[in-house]
Amino acid sequence: GAVVSQHPSRVICKSGTSVKIECRSLDFQATTMFWYRQFPKQSLMLMATSNEGSKATYEQGVEKDKFLINHASLTLSTLTVTSAHPEDSSFYICSALFNTAIAPETQYFGPGTRLLVL
Amino acid sequence: AQKVTQAQTEISVVEKEDVTLDCVYETRDTTYYLFWYKQPPSGELVFLIRRNSFDEQNEISGRYSWNFQKSTSSFNFTITASQVVDSAVYFCAPPYNNNDMRFGAGTRLTVKP
User: Mapping DSSP to helix (H, G, I), strand (E, B) and coil, where does residue B18 land?
Assistant: First the structure.
């Protein structure tokens, strides 16, 4: 399957600082990437859809000024948590959409980033 | 809109038992895909299978098998002779559908030695 990397895998930061998480598709170009948030023992919650070269589409209830998404190239999307607070602590997962005749509409996921805000 | 329901939130079995994870879906589309993903304790979601609605043949991959029944809108996943390494959360998912991507709640499978 396709490979998606995410960096960093784990980050601890102080309240009020900003944190950037990178999501890269390593062996394919991804026009569309997704950002999810997952709380312990809960399902994935889609935060936003990131399309290369255009503004991200945010899900209802997700603050776009709080969670800045940039998809500047076909292999890289970034999520910046601005002015992070303890309630932003969570597991953030990205995925890239692989859409070919062989593997249509399939999301491949990054390994996730555990964010802890002190 | 497409959505999936995984009614089993947690399942616990003893190693070597067979276990079936249920997935029921809703869709208005005539053609669609369905997916199963595995999330082990490490957290990374692993793609297991994609099924095209045109293809109702059961699929088997080693100890894993999938039963797709369009008539009952179900896409169930069976693990035969379960092993401790199968312990994970398993998600059934529809494809992304423009502002309507909703993963199921997931089924947490615990396989005890």
Answer: coil
